[in-house]
Write a structure and sequence with these properties.
Helix content is 56%, strand content 13%. By secondary structure, the protein is of the alpha/beta class.
Length: 206
């Protein structure tokens, strides 16, 4: 069901969780933090429809739901819409996490989780999604065919490695590290991938 609109500019969220008490708890946490919950459901297939209807910034999906499970729903959603995806799961097996990542999931949270874990997890997933959007936008601005899907994946890998270097060597936060790479690339009219490579090689720093 849909929620009434709240403040303009608020991050818009769809929640898909088949346990009503967890769904209610998530909604309360999010709305108290200024998020706008535009839709909620207990079914994976309905989550896909809600994302199509409301075009949220973030969708939170439980791994096990009727209709479609969380990974299937994530795959259906991310193949059509630009949206950050946080997966809730009672499992943390490597193969499951890799499958979720391939389906477009940006981060996951293992249940049972504490209330104080929710907002930091959402901050991380939104930061990751915005970084991917920035990389995609940069690739879209290149000459046609200049950067394909494999190159975008490689760019993301190199940028991730460079962020770790900046965080370790210069005590930056993750967002500060990415901002340095992005802003340096814009200022010098260079690809983020090239800036990131120079950071890794030690020839560029703040």
């Amino acid at each position: 069901m849909s929620a009434p609109a709240q403040s303009a500019g608020a991050t818009r969220v769809v929640i898909a969780e088949d346990e009503a008490i967890i769904r209610l708890d998530l909604r309360e946490i999010l709305e108290s933090a200024g998020f706008e919950v535009v839709g909620e459901t207990a079914r994976g297939d309905e989550a896909v429809s809600l994302v199509a209807e409301h075009r949220p910034d973030l969708v939170i999906l439980d791994i096990k739901m009727p209709g479609l499970d969380g990974i299937e729903a994530a795959r259906a959603i991310t193949s059509q819409y630009p949206v950050a995806v946080l997966l809730l799961t009672a499992f943390s097996q490597r193969d499951l996490i890799e499958e979720a990542r391939d389906a477009g999931v940006h981060a996951y949270l293992v249940k049972p989780f504490r209330r104080e874990q929710i907002l930091p997890a959402i901050d991380r997933v939104l930061a990751t999604w915005r970084q991917e959007q920035a990389i995609d936008a940069e690739a879209a601005g290149l000459e046609p065919g200049a950067e394909g899907a494999d190159d975008k994946i490689e760019t993301r890998r190199v940028v991730e490695d460079a962020k770790v270097v900046l965080m370790d060597r210069h005590e930056m936060s993750e967002s500060e590290a990415f901002s340095f790479i992005q802003q340096t690339a814009m200022r010098t009219r260079t690809r983020m991938r090239d800036i990131a490579q120079r950071v890794i090689e030690g020839t560029l720093g703040p």
